[in-house]
């Protein structure tokens, strides 16, 4: 391919018109930029159980419509995943329930254990992806410019490290009063600008009860 490799840490495949991820990506790469291409699918594990040393993966502005992260057990130190500007309508994080007595899905404990930033802006999501709580280190989630319509009480359940939630420019009309409950580390911002909210949110704001939290609510329908 026309990818550029610095021989040590950086792989740059941006604007190379590739439709698949190169099979010969060096496992020593720390940053991989695969943005602005024609990639339609991304499979984390190729079955060889070889671990990549990637910390930053940029898959923005491709053609990905569906993505499953449950098999990403070979990216143990990945910290940022950029999926902006695709066509993602389904993002699967949660594991299927194993059969009684089976340990088939015990790898859930190793699902992107170092991921801090998940960015899925400008896609086609109509709900918050289920299973965000499985990403044990997740601190920031960016989902601006999707088609999300409501925030349910389990959407951010168990996201104990979450500091920053960006839901700007969606179609949100309803937020459950307990949607952000127990997110004790929220300290940066909850951005709900440019949605379809019609009533103020006093219950949610009172339950958050964080002095340093910034909540943005402008350009809604009230």
Automatic annotation (TrEMBL):
GO cellular component: plasma membrane
UniProt-listed InterPro entries: Leu-rich_rpt, Leu-rich_rpt_typical-subtyp, LRR_dom_sf, LRR_TM_domain-containing
Keywords per UniProt: Leucine-rich repeat, Repeat
SUPFAM superfamilies for the chain: L domain-like
Superkingdom per UniProt: Eukaryota
Pfam families named among the record's database cross-references: LRR_1, LRR_8
Alphabetical list of PANTHER family matching this protein: ANTIGEN BSP, PUTATIVE-RELATED, INSULIN LIKE GROWTH FACTOR BINDING PROTEIN ACID LABILE SUBUNIT
Protein name as catalogued: LRC66 protein
């Amino acid at each position: 391919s026309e990818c550029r490799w610095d021989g040590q840490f950086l792989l740059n495949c941006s604007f190379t018109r590739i439709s698949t991820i190169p099979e010969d990506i060096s496992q020593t790469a720390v940053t991989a930029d695969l943005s602005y291409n024609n990639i339609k699918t991304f499979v984390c594990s190729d079955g060889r159980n070889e671990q990549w040393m990637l910390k930053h993966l940029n898959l923005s502005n491709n053609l990905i419509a569906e993505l499953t992260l449950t098999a990403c057990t070979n990216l143990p130190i990945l910290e940022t995943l950029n999926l902006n500007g695709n066509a993602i309508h389904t993002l699967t994080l949660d594991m299927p329930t194993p059969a009684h007595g089976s340990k088939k899905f015990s790898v859930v404990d190793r699902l992107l254990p170092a991921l801090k930033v998940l960015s899925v802006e400008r896609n086609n999501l109509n709900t918050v992806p289920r299973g965000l709580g499985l990403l044990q280190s997740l601190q920031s989630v960016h989902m601006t410019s999707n088609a999300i319509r409501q925030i349910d009480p389990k959407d951010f359940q168990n996201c104990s490290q979450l500091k920053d939630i960006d839901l700007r420019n969606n179609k949100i009309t309803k937020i459950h009063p307990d949607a952000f409950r127990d997110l004790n580390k929220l300290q940066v911002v909850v951005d709900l600008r440019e949605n379809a909210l019609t009533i103020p949110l006093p219950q949610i704001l009172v339950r958050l009860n964080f002095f340093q939290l910034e909540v943005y609510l402008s350009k809604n329908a009230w």
